[in-house]
Amino acid sequence: MESLNQDALFVWLAASPSPRFEYQGHAFEAYQESAGAPLGSLFRMRLIYDDLSVESALSAWVLSLAKALGPEVIYIAPIRRQVALHCIELTLPLEPSRELLATFPDDLAECHVIRQALPKLSEPGLLVMDMDSTAIQIECIDELAAMAGVGERVAAITERAMLGELDFEQSLRQRVAQLKGADASIIEILCDRLPLMSGLEPMLTELKSHHWRLVVASGGFTPFCRPFEAAIKLRCGLCQ
Fold first, then answer.
1. pLDDT (tens digit, 9 = 90+) per residue, 103-150?
2. Which residue of 18, 39, 120, 151 is surrounded by the most CB atoms within 10 Å?
3. Adjacency order of strands within the sheet including 236-238
4. Which helix (H) or strand (E) holds 206?
5. What is the CATH number of the domain that holds 133?
6. Is 183 a catalytic residue?
7. Rounded to 5 degrees, what are φ and ψ at 172?
8. What's the domain count of the chain?
9. Same domain, 32 and 67
10. What is the pLDDT of residues 47-69, one digit of tens each?
11. Does residue 32 form part of some domain?
12. 50, 51, 132, 192: which is the annotated catalytic residue?
């Protein structure tokens, strides 16, 4: 079953009429994520993209992998999620050269090499995440400092901490001290506009649908953590 259509590989994978596909003289076999990677495979990667129009370019790159591997079978699995992204997993019997990996069209998609076992959504799981600059796009104390007019002073302390001149507690105490005398209303103002990290909500919705437990463990402050927890319905949070 061979086709010159560059999208044929993805059409076959979506329709899954048979587990094996001959694509431009190279063999591919489909498997399901829930079954895990085939035994004996040495290299795994996931290709993630948000625009179906890039599948032609991805097909061409996957074909270049197949040509480099010769007669070896490439195993491929569709990774299906509720988020507005598309993903396939490739499992190879050999590791591609760095030169070949460097030809991946990273302006069109992301390529993530998998070096260790991944958690399975079909099994109970726990996600523990930080809040500042992880689940939300800002550092709350930096935003408070800017609103209080002491942003540059706090930034200087943060830089010293980054250079190893201050430990976490010293840095935290010195930064908080700069906020002395600031109007407490800035806390509520900031709480009302915490910018969630792009993609966070659909990711958490996906995990919740598989009965995962979600927790935030942050060095940030409780006045910010509590509204954040309520907004995305977390199970619990540990904050300062």
1. 999 999 999 999 888 888 888 899 998 988 899 999 898 999 999 999
2. 151
3. 126-129, 213-217, 236-238
4. helix 200-209
5. 3.40.50.1000
6. no
7. -60, -50
8. 3
9. yes
10. 999 999 999 999 999 999 999 98
11. yes
12. 132
Q: Which residue has the tokens 């927790």?
A: 215
Q: Residue 181 maps to which CATH number?
A: 1.10.150.210
Q: In one letter, which amino acid is 231?
A: A
Q: Within this chain, do residues 133 and 155 fall inside the same structural domain, yes or no? A: no
- What's the pLDDT tens digit per position in 192-204? 888 999 889 988 9
Active-site choice (7, 50, 106, 130): 130
Residue 218: exposure state from Cβ atoms within 10 A (0-12, 13-18, ≥19): buried
Any idea of the CA torsion for 13, 16, 21, 24, to the nearest 10 degrees?
-40
Cα(142)–Cα(72) distance, integer angstroms: 53
| 134: containing domain | 123-138+194-240
pLDDT at 51: 92
Query: Does the annotation count 132 as an active-site position?
Result: yes
Q: Tell me the DSSP string of 27-96.
A: EEEE--GGG-SPTT--EEEEEEES-GGGHHHHHHHHHHHHHHHTTPPEEEEEE--SSS-EEEEEEESSPP
Residue 196 DSSP code: B
Q: Say how far apart CA 20 and CA 30 lie, in whole Å.
A: 6
